[in-house]
Amino acid sequence: MINLVINGLNVSVEDGSTVLEAARFLGFSIPTLCHVDGLSPYGACRLCVVEIGEGPRAKLVSSCTYPAEEGLKVRTASARVIRARKMILELLLASCPQSKTIQDLAAAHDVRQQRFKQEYEDCILCGLCVRMCEEQMMAKAIGFRGRGEKRSIGTPFDIKSDVCRLCGACMYICPACQLRCTYNEPEKAICGACANLAPPCVEKDQFDDMMCYMDPCVACEIQKDK
Amino acid sequence: MNQAATTESEKDILEILAKHGDDQGGLIAILEEIQARHGYLPEDALRTVADETGRSLVDIYGVATFYHSFSLEPRGKHLVSVCVGTACHVRGAPMIAEEFERQLGVGAGETTPDREFTLQTVNCLGACALGPIVVVDGHYFSNVKPSKVAGIIARTREGLDEIEVETDERVFPLEVNCPHCNHSLMDPARPIDGLPSIRLTISFDNQHCGFNRSCLYGSFHIKSQIDIPTDTVLYFFCPHCYAELVSASNCTECGAPMVPMVLRAGGMMQVCSRRGCKSHRLDLEGVHV
Ligand code: FES
Ligand code: FES
Predict the structure, then answer these.
(1) Is the CB of B282 within 6 Å of ligand 2?
(2) How far apart are CA B81 and CA B51, in angstroms?
(3) Helix (H/G/I), strand (E/B), else coil: A199
(4) Chain B contacts of A156, Cβ < 8 Å?
């Protein structure tokens, strides 16, 4: 067991826990975006920042990747943390304002405006879909490509991957395109991409265990219409 | 696609993979070697690597697209790299890059339609004091000005390897030591190009002999006691401590091992061990010019 202090409260957690898990155990809520139970921690969004250490040596770390250490002093909502978190939300809003998940997070943290150049990216490179594909769906069909400005997520050579089962898990988990499957309520559709999607079950026979995540499913809706 | 050619290149790749064995960490080395042989990373090659090594294609593709030195598209015959690193930038590198783009008619990262030139920009080649730097097929051009661009292109078309030693500004003399015993390798008794040469011993096909090469960077004049057929990969030894001079990395052009020598001014020079291959690398790290 590891003993640490979170917001002045002592807590002991199991070896190998992260600071985020320890804080959640005590009931302190820390907002997260790129962290999902069942997927390995990745530390991409930085939304889960907390302050560790004391005095001039205090620093901000991402709690989802920081391992709980003996005697660690953690503050989950100090002024510095709040400021950093708001800034991160502004940056996320600046790159991907159309995501419901990000909008909700921003609203919950009282961020109503962002001060950067507005962009309309589809992807915030949180890597959730990549980890989902690899760790839960055991497919490894998509991954990160390129670097820097050109970094993107997709299949090798941008063609349909041989190992993709079209299960839709990547879309299910994506915080930026979660709401795209609004095919049956077109007036609410955000991007309409679902309407152009190859229905996932077309090649279903090939895979007995499809684990389809599309809900509502475009293909099923089309089927119903007929 | 030509069937024979595919199997041929596949054999090639299997050979490279066999050399690297099961070493899980060797992906970059494998890709480098494929790129050295083919000039780029063909899609089929990446698929073969994935199948053979059990890595997933996404991972390999991720690595191949991450590093600037890998290219997924065939490159031109000549590779022009314009340094736009900080030091070169303040000395006017953007103008040089633009001039190349204008004269070649392609943007950075593109290849001319006739497959002659590939233009790329790079961030710092480690020779900042001589900037702006342009490297064409491993030949360094220093203090480049926009007015010199046309000349560089013309000279590349003519063939960069023909060098007039007396007049060419790209050649400069180097003094080198053995990386093992640090003994000087300079040989004033057997001058080449009018300067002391670099003395080494070589062996190939059970023959051993002394070997001198020009100390001018950019000149490939040599003297050898026995005739060396082109394309032979030679083994180089220090004439003083008899240690073999071989570096961990392979030639990016032909895949043969490189021969390291220590520059007296600091840094490393590496030349390809294949007779006739003109690949060489200058690593000026730590030089205070
Ligand atoms: S949740 Fe920790 S960095 Fe995204
Ligand atoms: S910036 Fe061009 S060589 Fe360093």
Answers:
(1) no
(2) 33
(3) coil
(4) 46, 57-58, 60-61
HSE of A151, CA atoms in CB hemisphere, 13 A: 12
Same domain for B222 and B156, yes or no, is: no
Answer whether B56 sits within 8 Å of A163, measured CB to CB: yes
In a domain, B7, yes or no: yes
Residues of chain B predicted below pLDDT 70: 1-8, 22-25, 160-171, 218, 284-289
The residue out of B99, B127, B160 marking a domain boundary is B160
Q: What is the pLDDT of residue A182?
A: 45
Cβ neighbours, 10 Å, residue A2? 17
**Closest residue, chain A, to B55 (C-alpha):** A140
Pick the last residue of a domain from B134, B160, B186. Answer: B160
- Phi/psi at A51 (5° precision): -105, 130
ipTM of the complex: 0.73
Residues B89 and B53 in one domain: no
The CATH number of the domain holding residue B101 is: 3.40.30.10
Say whether both B185 and B272 belong to one domain.
yes
Tell me the residue length of chain A: 226
- B148 and B91 together in one domain: yes
Tell me the β-bridge partners of A144.
A153
Domains and their CATH numbers in chain A: 2-118+191-225 (3.10.20.740), 128-173 (3.30.70.20)
Q: How far is CA A66 from CA A1, A17, A75, A129, A134, in A?
A: 16, 9, 13, 22, 22
The DSSP element (H or E) to which B8 belongs, if any, is helix B3-20
Beta-sheet pairing, A9-13 with B117-122: unpaired
Q: Is residue B73 part of a domain?
A: no
Give me the pLDDT at residue A221, please.
61
Tokens representing A76? Answer: 């989950």
With an 8 Å Cβ cutoff, is B60 touching chain A? yes
Cβ(B82)–Cβ(B152) under 8 Å? Answer: no
B87 with B138, same domain? yes
Structural domain containing residue B110: 78-160
pTM equals: 0.64
Taking the C-alpha atoms of residue A95 and residue A149, their distance in angstroms, rounded to an integer, is 13
The conformation of residue A220, written as its DSSP 8-state character, comes to H
Percent residues over pLDDT 70 in chain B? 89
The answer to whether the CB of B168 falls within 8 A of the CB of B218 is yes
Give the number of domains in chain B.
Answer: 3
Task: Show Cβ contacts of residue B230 under 8 Å, excluding neighbours closer than 6 positions.
Answer: B275, B276
Concatenating the DSSP letter of every residue in B14-64 gives HHHHHHHTT-GGGHHHHHHHHHHHHSS--HHHHHHHHHHH---HHHHHHHH
Does B71 fall in a domain?
A: no
Cα(B91) to centroid(ligand 2), Å: 10
